[in-house]
Design brief:
two-stranded antiparallel ribbon; Rossmann fold; alpha/beta; binds 1-O-pyrophosphono-5-O-phosphono-alpha-D-ribofuranose; globular; 212 residues; 13 strands; binds uracil; 9-stranded mixed β-sheet
């Protein structure tokens, strides 16, 4: 696949190791959730490298100085329900003061197109860095719609973070929203006839929440 602007495929060994554990069909719900949380934190560490800082005054045991702190109120995390919820706490561990919005989308089982059922975003959103999270970028329909909804509410500086992507979904998201910075844990081979990612990890929502 040709190199695309604004697309980062995270090749860190810790992320790759944890993704391999996620893929294993014998990994149970409890461990799966923990791994998603850890991967989100590792990805967030990289994806948030350009987070704005603000100088604050701190008194050290030696003297008073101006020193940078994360302008945490400037960050919003927006999980795509349901599976994106699994990635929120890992990023909140890094930036506890971030606001959290929610976008509810489900894929039609036949057409694989997303349907919206919920949208609640921090207000105002214009000034914030917005990190949309969803473990899976398959056809890209859900991610494209989620980013469009955020833009309709005034969001400008948008990142999309996933754990596994299919080439088809990456292309669709990048073409629809070339301004969005995309972070991917691993780029898999392809989609199958049911629009599942191969080799993938199955249905992320079901594996996180123990449903079927
Ligand atoms: C999954 C996943 C993404 C979407 C990806 O959610 O969490 O949101 O599919 O597929 P796409 O790129 O083809 O749109 P799903 O619709 O299964 O809902 P769930 O999280 O509630 O299980
Ligand atoms: N959603 C998932 O949870 N898994 C896939 O492989 C594709 C979409």
């Amino acid at each position: 696949m040709e190199k695309m602007n604004n697309v980062t495929i995270l090749e860190h060994p810790l992320i790759q190791h944890k993704i391999s554990m996620l893929r294993d069909k014998n990994t149970g719900t409890n461990e799966f959730r923990k791994l998603v949380d850890e991967i989100a934190m590792l990805e967030g560490f990289i994806a948030l490298a350009d987070l704005p800082l603000e100088e604050v005054e701190v008194e050290t045991p030696i003297e008073t100085c101006m020193t940078p702190k994360i302008a945490g109120r400037k960050l919003a995390i927006v999980p795509i329900l349901r599976a994106g919820l699994g990635m929120v706490s890992g990023i909140l561990a890094l930036v506890p003061s971030a606001k959290v919005g929610h976008i509810g989308l489900y894929r039609d089982e036949v057409t694989h197109e997303p349907h919206e059922y919920y949208c609640k975003l921090p207000n105002p959103i214009e000034e914030r860095t917005i990190v949309v999270v969803d473990p899976m970028l398959a056809t890209g329909g859900s991610a494209v719609d989620a980013v469009s909804m955020i833009k309709e509410h005034g969001g400008v500086n948008i990142k999309f973070m996933c754990i596994i992507a299919a080439p088809e979904g990456l292309k669709r998201l990048h073409e629809a929203h070339p301004d969005v910075q995309i972070y991917i844990g691993h780029l898999d081979r392809e989609l199958n006839e049911n629009a599942y990612i191969c080799p993938g990890l199955g249905d992320a929502g079901d594996r996180i929440f123990g449903t079927k």
